[in-house]
């Protein structure tokens, strides 16, 4: 996932999650804007669309994450449960890819292709850094 929600959703609940999500999302968008070299007149439109895209992708992934989380809690899940979780993840990834494609078209109306490419690159870099932070946090427990 390119969006922060994927990272936050698994560790926190309720208001704490919402606050953390908003803070990380804000930081991420500033990071992306810097990496993409957005002009001031592009930022507001980008932030609005990017946030919208992330929320849609999060909602598409949420059912699969729930199944995955429940599966990991079980001591010996059945093959059918594994199959349902795998199918849900595939479906969610397809939906997420369709959402990304839809928004890439919307972004291309006011961003250059270079900026869109840099966005995708910066999203991946941000995702990796967030994942490293989660791993480090788990290691300290």
Question: What proportion of the residues form beta strands (DSSP E)?
Answer: under 5%
Taking the alpha carbons of the first and last residues, their distance comes to 25 Å
Number of helical regions:
5
Unreliable stretches (pLDDT < 50, length at least 5) are 4-12
Biggest sheet record: none
Report the helical percentage. Answer: over 70%
Spatial extent as radius of gyration: 17 Å
Net shape: globular
* Average pLDDT score: 88
**Secondary-structure element sequence?**
HHHHH
The total strand number stands at 0
Structure description:
With 141 residues, the protein is mainly α. 84% of the residues lie in helices and 0% in strands. It has five helices and no strands. Helix 2 crosses helix 5 and helix 3 packs antiparallel against helix 4. The longest helix is centred in the middle third of the chain and has 34 residues. About 6% of the residues have low confidence.
List the helices and strands and how they pair.
Elements: H1 5-9, H2 14-36, H3 40-73, H4 79-107, H5 113-140
